[in-house]
């Protein structure tokens, strides 16, 4: 007789739910509507941050201006020295309260595909969360190691000439966070702006990046990027993942992934066969030997409890060597 118990587990870390205020950056570029773009771009570079919040004299948010806005000016032949922030800033901005749970922050990055998120307290900007902050600080804390691989966030980048205006045009037209000058030289929006300010070629201020195997979990990739303080990962010969790509993919995985542990008792002598066959099933990420009343523990990822139930009832139980199963579903992973 086979008995399946579906339990719901909740794992917690620490004392309180992680909030937006715990990963936001408190030292960030600020601009006023009448500031010149050349001065704001210098603040981008000084802070190593790709955007500035635009505020009034009371600290209330009026808009946001980014590296991409500066690149559009360069690509169109306009001068940063002659353009005001108010001419290019966006007045529609996605914001978040400082007490919003970290998982919701990740969901906002996924839903809006944004690169930065101002954090408010009583209508005043007290911080900013960028996609880099999400990768460095949030993903390692809230994403399960089995949720997603770096290859799922990677994409091919366009090629460009080693020229400021041409690179700006390519990045803007392709809506890309990076471009390749050659097979190993990667430039970003920041590279182009640094070149503009310093009178250099983009290749002279190219981006650093790390190379990771395609199967690297998003969680491990994020931790490795934080350790090396890079914003790009190369996957393969021409595919790269930027922090925004990783944040978006992690948001999709955090939203849709449910983890289940399936304990399986098999007929004596069938352990090796079971491991080989069950490892090949859809949704199964690992099969390991265990001790006690069961012989194997299967770890599976799916979008719903129904997916776990279907896996057990239709693809595991019906095998001749399976004697019994017990299923535990992780309902939530977070902080307490």
TrEMBL record:
InterPro entries: CBS_dom, CBS_dom_sf, Dimeric_a/b-barrel, Diverse_CBS-Domain, Tscrpt_reg_AsnC/Lrp_C
SUPFAM superfamilies linked: CBS-domain pair (SSF54631), Dimeric alpha+beta barrel (SSF54909)
Top-rank taxon, per record: Archaea
Keywords assigned by UniProt, alphabetized: CBS domain
Residues covered by the CBS domain: 24-80, 89-146
Keyword Chaperone part of the UniProt annotation: no
Cited Pfam families: AsnC_trans_reg, CBS
Keyword NADP: no
Coiled coil: none
PANTHER family per record: CBS DOMAIN-CONTAINING PROTEIN, CBS DOMAIN-CONTAINING PROTEIN CBSX3, MITOCHONDRIAL
Name used for this protein in its record: Inosine-5-monophosphate dehydrogenase
Source organism per UniProt: Ignicoccus pacificus DSM 13166
């Amino acid at each position: 007789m086979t008995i399946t118990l579906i339990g719901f587990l909740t794992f917690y870390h620490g004392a309180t739910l992680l909030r937006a205020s715990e990963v936001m950056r408190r030292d960030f570029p600020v601009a006023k509507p009448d500031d010149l773009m050349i001065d704001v771009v210098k603040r981008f570079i000084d802070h190593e941050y790709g955007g500035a919040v635009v505020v009034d004299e009371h600290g209330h948010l009026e808009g946001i201006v980014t590296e991409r806005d500066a690149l559009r000016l360069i690509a169109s032949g306009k001068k940063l020295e002659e353009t005001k922030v108010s001419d290019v800033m966006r007045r529609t901005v996605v914001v978040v309260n400082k007490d919003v749970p970290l998982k919701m922050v990740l969901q906002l990055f996924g839903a809006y595909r944004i690169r930065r998120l101002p954090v408010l307290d009583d209508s005043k900007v007290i911080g900013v969360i960028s996609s880099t902050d999400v990768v460095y600080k949030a993903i390692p804390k809230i994403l399960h190691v089995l949720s997603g691989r770096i290859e799922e966030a990677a994409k091919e980048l366009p090629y460009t000439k080693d020229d400021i205006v041409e690179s700006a045009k390519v990045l803007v037209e392709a809506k890309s966070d990076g471009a390749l000058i050659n097979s190993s030289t990667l430039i970003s929006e920041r590279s182009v702006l640094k070149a503009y300010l310093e009178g250099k070629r983009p290749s002279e201020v190219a981006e650093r990046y790390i190379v990771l195997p395609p199967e690297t979990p998003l969680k491990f990739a994020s931790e490795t990027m934080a350790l090396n303080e890079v914003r790009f990962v190369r996957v393969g010969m021409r595919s790269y993942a930027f922090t925004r790509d990783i944040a978006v993919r992690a948001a999709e995985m955090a939203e849709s992934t449910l983890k289940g542990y399936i304990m399986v008792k098999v007929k004596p002598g069938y352990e090796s066969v079971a491991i080989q066959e069950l490892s090949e099933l859809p949704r199964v990420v690992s099969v390991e030997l265990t001790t006690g009343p069961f012989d194997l523990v299967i770890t599976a990822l799916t979008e719903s409890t129904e997916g776990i139930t279907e896996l057990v009832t239709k693809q595991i139980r019906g095998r001749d060597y399976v004697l019994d199963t017990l299923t535990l579903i992780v309902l939530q992973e977070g902080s307490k």
